[in-house]
Amino acid sequence: MTxxxxxxxxxxxxxxxxxxxxxxxxxxxxxxxxxxxxxALAADQPVVIDLADVFFIDSSGLRRLLGASRRARxxxxxxxxxxxxxxxxxxxxxxxxxxxxxxxSTRASS
Amino acid sequence: MSSxxxxxxxxxxxxxxxxxDPALSRVLRLxxxxxxxxxxxxxxxxxxxxxxxxxxxxxxxxxxxxxxIEVRFTIAEGSFEVLGRTKVDAFDAGHPDLELCRTVxxxxxxxxxxxxxxxxxxxxxxxxxxxxx
Lengths: 110, 133
What we know:
Chain A is built from 3 helices and 6 strands, in the order E-E-E-H-E-H-E-H-E. Chain A is α/β, with parallel strands linked by helices.
């Protein structure tokens, strides 16, 4: 099943392969949208999040990703981040939380 | 890319008063990045300013009491300063959610502070500009 959650500044689409594709900023407004999309997935299912179209994230957004990681690990699963851009990579590095995720790929600089 | 980053331009203060609406975080970042661009900050510094401003606002929204939030941007002597405040009777400066915020501010800002004075939460941060080369 595919679907989407959104607000004015971001949206999350569950694609046909079960990947959550995020478009927009993962901030205090967008974070809850992403969280809702993640929580709609089965807790024991691996979570793959495509961040190719994410160019901003702050600590409130990161908290949502970390919450997803904790939830997945509790159920023996993991969160994989795909197409991680420099903005997300930097925040993960600053907060020393990179190891909470599987980084599948990084986004090429534009 | 040429940049006016080495030219010192003082701007502001610019004061914005906004309701504690998460959707306005993006608006505040746009205002800050526009002002920083006018002030000659580099692309990397503008990214730091955007994150810093976002951290200030989210902390005041999440830990505030629902009152309006006042934010002031000032560029002076090569630094971008953001000061946010909101009225709140009780403010837990040690709240766990603020820890991640502090960690981020430590890296994106040259200095920052969070305190509670006269029933107002105050959060300030400065992002400096590289010296002319």
